[in-house]
Write a structure and sequence with these properties.
Number of strands: 12
Strand order of the largest sheet: 2-3-8-5-7-6
Oligomer: single chain
Shape: elongated
Length: 409
């Protein structure tokens, strides 16, 4: 075997130009695949983390029927034992009980439908960054301050301003209609059009009073330190005795539209990478086939003097393996450097591209990420598909007859 590996290495450099061109193609495919994949996955992580930290949380506790039919009656009691279970997990950064409701917000002659969010601003700061999205004024001061913050578009459509007083009308937990006056202390601009058009943030206790839902919550939003701990934490919470009366939903179930959009983009990216790898595999097929065909006379002589046909096949296989391994290793090293650079210095979109990206609710930033699993999977894919493409030249060698090989021109 040692002799075959030495022969294979020497055979590669008998046609130096062709070998270098083939290795360059493998390097390019590996490099481009890993850089594209790194930026793609890094952008996903960045935008998922941004969206989860904005308001929804990484995980939510809900009533078993709330997700399919949200209403005040699909609520639950957040017990001290639930809070203790969340506080005891070091992976959890914070949690915030909330009340979600629907209502009508009125200012002078204008009345618009609104999504009501009852929050405790002190707890929300450990879970979300909504307070950083205040574009005018400030966030509500406390859970019972009789203050509200409106989405920027909603504030504009009402023709109201920060400092004005509006009336909120909503149906309560008991079915009765309740209304109350609140002072606008700020507006938020999240970049999500539907959210900015309808959101009303108010104190947790204020909304409890308005909808007469004392002692109950709609959801509990949970934030984690690490995005990749979501599945493990959700599974651990489901097995906790105090959580058996509620559903533990990771963000993928809370925001299925976002998950589907990312999956669609991910599949299209993987398809492009697959096409690139297949093109390189055909290049490998062409190179190996040409190399084998050119040496049919040589192979015929080797076979006629007693060299086993299987050893000849192994020789060609090792030559192909050398080509692929050199290209894949060099491509991985180059891609690692580029991905590390873009991880520290993300690509920032500007101008119209940035505005278009923000309008769709995405950040105009494209960081990369270095994932050993991605590097390994991509390398294995390139190696496997290329070796499959080389099976035909190997078959030609395996079925070559000594006399036909010697007479081949």
């Amino acid at each position: 075997m040692e002799l075959l590996t030495k022969l294979a290495w020497r055979n590669l450099w008998r046609n130096r130009r062709r070998t270098l061109i083939t290795i360059s193609a493998v390097i390019f495919a590996t490099f481009l695949s890993l850089v594209m994949r790194g930026i793609q996955l890094g952008t996903y992580d960045q935008n998922i983390s941004w969206a989860l930290n904005l308001f929804s949380g990484f995980i939510q506790l809900q009533d078993a029927e709330f997700k399919d039919n949200p209403s005040l009656h699909k609520s639950f009691r957040f017990t001290p034992s639930m809070g203790a279970a969340l506080e005891s997990d070091d992976r959890i950064r914070g949690y915030a009980p909330r009340i979600y409701g629907d209502g009508l917000v009125s200012f002078r002659q204008n009345s618009l439908g609104a999504a009501l969010f009852g929050i405790d601003p002190a707890q929300e700061r450990s879970v979300t960054r909504m307070h950083e999205k205040v574009s005018e004024g400030r966030m509500i001061a406390s859970a019972n301050a009789s203050e509200i913050v409106l989405g920027r578009t909603l504030l504009k459509n009402l023709n109201a301003s920060v400092g004005d007083t509006v009336v909120l009308l909503s149906q309560g937990y008991d079915g009765a209609l309740g209304n109350m006056k609140y002072r606008i202390v700020g507006s938020v601009k999240t970049g999500m059009q539907d959210f900015d058009r309808a959101a009303v943030f108010m104190g947790f206790e204020d909304l409890q009073e308005l909808v007469t839902m004392h002692g109950r919550v709609s959801v509990v939003a949970i934030a984690l330190h690490d995005l990749h701990d979501i599945d493990d934490v959700a599974e651990d919470l489901r097995s906790t005795a105090s959580m058996r009366e509620v559903r533990v939903l990771p963000w993928q179930e809370v925001m299925p539209d976002m998950k589907q959009g990312i999956d669609l983009d991910n599949y299209s990216g993987m398809l492009m990478l697959a096409i690139l790898i297949v093109i390189v595999a055909f290049g490998i097929l062409n190179t190996v086939l040409m190399s084998v065909t050119e040496r049919f006379k040589e192979f015929g002589i080797l076979l006629s003097i007693g060299m086993p046909q299987r050893q000849l096949v192994v020789l060609v296989f090792v030559e192909t393996l050398y080509l692929l391994l050199i290209g894949i290793i060099v491509g991985n090293v180059l891609a690692l450097g580029v991905n590390m650079y873009f991880e520290a210095n993300p690509i920032t979109l500007t101008g119209d591209y940035a505005a278009m990206t923000e309008e769709y609710g995405w950040l105009p930033v494209m960081p990369s990420v270095v994932l050993p699993s991605s590097m390994l999977n991509t390398s294995i894919a390139i190696l496997s598909i290329s070796l499959v493409a080389a099976l035909y030249p190997l078959y030609r060698v395996l079925t070559l007859e000594p006399l036909k090989g010697i007479r081949y021109t």
